[in-house]
C-alpha cells in the first residue's frame, strides 16, 4: 500500500500536475495540503475520473486539506483539532481508511517572528501534541501525515545558518516536533534513510530547485502499530521540476 502526501500549492492551478503524477505513480492514498480553494471549488469530478474518491476541507484563497483514496472511501472522523473552537482554518482532516487512521496536517508557517502568526503556530502545535497523545495511546494504526512546516534537524535544511531565525527552524519549534516524536511516533523517512540528504520543498526563487537548496518539511509520523509494516519511503523529486509545479514535491511511504 502506497501512501503519499503532497502540498499542491493551489489544487486547481496545479491540477494537470497532480493528475499526471497520480497517473504515473498510482498511490493508494494521498493527503493534499494548501488547496487554496473554497469548499465548492474542489475538483472532485476530475479526481474521481482519475480513480480516486475524495474528502476535503476547502477555504477561500488559503489553507485547505484533502484525502484521496483509490480503493476504500475515506470516512471523516474529525474536521479540526480540538482545543480551540474559534480556529476556522482548514488545516486538519482525520479519516479512517480500512484499519488505518490517517491525519492530514497543514501546520501553520509561523512567520514573521515574533508575532501573532508565530504564537498561533506554537498554540496549534500544542493542540496537535495533545490530540496525538490521545491517538497514540489508543493503540490503533495511526499516521500523522503532511506539511508540518518544521525542519527537525540541521540535516533537513540546505543552509542551517540562513534559517536560524525562521519560524520553521527555531529551537522551540524543533523542540515541539521532537516532543511530538517522543510520544512514540516514528519519522518514517529518517527511520529508513537516517543519513541521506532529503528535501521535500524548494523555493521558487534563486534557482533553489536547480541548486538543490531545499528543506525537508513534509513528514510521515507512524504509530508503533504501523511501523512494522513500513517497507519503503521516498520523495518524487522530479515532480518539482515539472512545468507549473508546486514548490513541494510528493513524499510517499509503502506499507506491507
Automatic annotation (TrEMBL):
Coiled coil: none annotated. InterPro entries: AP_endonuc_1, AP_endonuclease_F1_BS, AP_endonuclease_F1_CS, Endo/exonu/phosph_ase_sf, Endo/exonuclease/phosphatase, ExoIII-like. Its cofactor is Mg(2+); Mn(2+). Residues 4-248 form the Endonuclease/exonuclease/phosphatase domain. One of its GO terms (molecular function) is double-stranded DNA 3'-5' DNA exonuclease activity. Keywords: Hydrolase, Magnesium, Metal-binding. The keyword Phosphoprotein does not apply. It is an enzyme of class 3 (hydrolase). Its EC number is 3.1.11.2. Belongs to the DNA repair enzymes AP/ExoA family. This is Exodeoxyribonuclease III.
Amino acid at each position: 500500500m502506497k501512501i503519499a502526501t503532497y502540498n499542491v500549492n493551489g489544487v486547481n492551478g496545479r491540477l494537470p500536475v497532480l493528475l499526471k503524477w497520480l497517473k504515473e505513480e498510482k498511490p493508494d492514498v494521498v493527503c493534499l495540503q494548501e488547496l487554496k480553494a473554497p469548499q465548492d471549488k474542489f475538483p472532485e469530478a476530475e479526481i474521481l475520473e482519475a480513480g480516486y474518491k475524495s474528502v476535503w476541507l476547502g477555504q477561500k484563497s488559503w489553507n485547505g486539506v484533502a484525502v484521496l483514496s483509490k480503493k476504500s472511501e475515506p470516512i471523516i472522523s474529525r474536521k479540526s483539532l480540538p482545543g480551540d473552537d474559534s480556529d476556522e482554518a482548514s488545516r486538519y482532516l482525520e479519516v479512517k481508511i480500512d484499519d488505518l487512521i490517517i491525519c492530514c496536517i497543514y501546520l501553520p508557517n509561523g512567520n514573521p517572528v515574533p508575532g501573532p502568526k508565530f504564537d498561533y503556530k506554537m498554540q496549534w502545535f500544542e493542540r496537535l501534541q495533545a490530540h496525538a497523545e490521545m491517538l497514540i495511546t489508543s493503540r490503533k494504526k495511526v499516521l500523522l501525515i503532511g506539511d508540518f512546516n518544521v525542519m527537525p534537524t540541521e540535516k533537513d535544511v540546505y543552509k542551517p545558518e540562513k534559517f536560524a531565525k525562521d519560524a520553521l527552524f527555531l529551537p522551540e519549534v524543533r523542540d515541539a516536533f521532537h516532543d511530538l516524536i517522543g510520544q512514540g511516533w516514528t519519522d518514517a523517512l529518517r527511520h529508513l534513510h537516517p543519513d541521506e540528504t532529503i528535501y521535500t520543498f524548494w523555493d521558487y526563487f534563486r534557482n533553489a530547485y536547480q541548486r538543490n537548496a531545499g528543506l525537508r518539511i513534509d513528514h510521515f509520523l507512524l504509530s508503533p502499530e504501523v511501523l512494522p509494516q513500513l517497507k519503503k519511503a521516498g520523495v518524487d523529486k522530479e515532480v518539482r521540476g515539472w512545468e507549473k509545479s508546486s514548490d513541494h514535491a510528493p513524499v510517499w511511504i509503502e506499507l506491507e
